Amino acid sequence: MTTPHPRAFVVGHPIGHSRSPLIHGHWLAEHGLPGTYERVDVHPDAFQDFIRSLREAGFVGGNVTIPHKEAAFRLAELLTPRAERIGAVNTLWFEDGRLHGDNTDAPGFLAHLDASLGAGWPEATGVADGRAALVLGAGGAARAILVGLLERGLDRLVVANRSAERAESLTALDPARITAAPWDAVPAHLPETGLLINTTALGMAGQDPLSLDLAPLPARAAVADIVYVPLETPLLAAARARGLPAVDGLGMLLHQAVPGFSRWFGRTPAVTPDLRARIVADLGSHG
To answer: Which residue intervals define the domain SDH C-terminal in the entry (predicted)?
Structure first.
């Protein structure tokens, strides 16, 4: 009897925009592995039934994207400590007959920072010496990134959001190391910021730009934006104009995919220039 090829998925609603099949398809071909990775569009009302049918459908696991990450957190049988802390799951797999859930957005973001800035970026930017990492936005991505920065050992994190209540709620992750700031106070925080991270939709294609004067940032600071359409947001263009390192959002998408692929297909892939170029070309071809 032949063993069926591993079958993985990305589930969301809508899901047509997802580049995950392109990423995982690239790795399957690169490693010459049998297996499939497919898009599945599931309405929120049907998500619980979808999760319960995974084993019967022959899936070994998959990725979860908007709007299902919190539901996946509730439905996974076992969670990693990181997923517990973030309260959302983007990666599922079966192990010892049970459905496990993790959130790889946090390590994905950190891996991209390491690749873009070098592993010594906490020292280079000054965040290892008391400067703040300033996170703009208070949604799920901000929460994951804050957890990643806490895991990396940063001692001073500031989160700013238009809704002060949402920013304040994130300080509960570590009240000793995270403080909330009003949105209109962001400029006042820039002189003491070593790493500025935009997790909002501002600057995304079709959205308003993030209007922020970066002149007060220290000369050693770095700027990251999780938006990747466009790849060069107005915020990153402003950072480059000031001579500051600018980290785009595509790398987080690529690096967060690595742990899942390893779980489902038994090989740890690399985020290579070829893969990045392929995704950039696809983004360009779709406007």
So the answer is: 249-272
CB atoms within 10 A of CB 172: 8
CA distance 41 to 47: 10
User: Is 130 within any annotated ligand binding site?
Assistant: no
The answer to whether the CB of 76 falls within 8 A of the CB of 92 is yes
3-state secondary structure 194-213: EEEEECCCCCCCCCCCCCCC
Higher pLDDT, residue 287 or 85:
85
CA-based angle 224:273:148, to the nearest 5?
35
pLDDT digits (tens, 9 = 90+) for 147-162: 999 999 999 999 999 9
Confirm whether residue 139 is marked as ligand binding: yes
Which band of pLDDT confidence, cut at 50, 70 and 90, is reported for residue 272?
very high
137 has binding-site annotation: yes
According to the annotation, is 141 in a ligand binding site?
yes
| 286 confidence band (pLDDT: 50, 70, 90) | low
Give the β-pairing of 98-102 and 91-95: antiparallel
- Is 140 annotated to bind ligand? yes
Q: What type of residue sits at position 213?
A: D
For 208-272, the DSSP string reads -------TTS-TT-EEEE---SSSS-HHHHHHHHTT--EE-SHHHHHHHTHHHHHHHHS------
Q: Identify the three-state secondary structure at position 103.
A: coil
- Which strands, in side-by-side order, build the sheet including 59-64? 36-41, 7-12, 59-64, 91-95, 98-102, 78-79
User: Residue 237: how many CA atoms within 13 Å on its side-chain side?
Assistant: 10
69 annotated active-site = yes
Distance separating alpha carbons of residues 11 and 40, to the nearest angstrom: 5
Catalytic one among 24, 26, 69, 85? 69
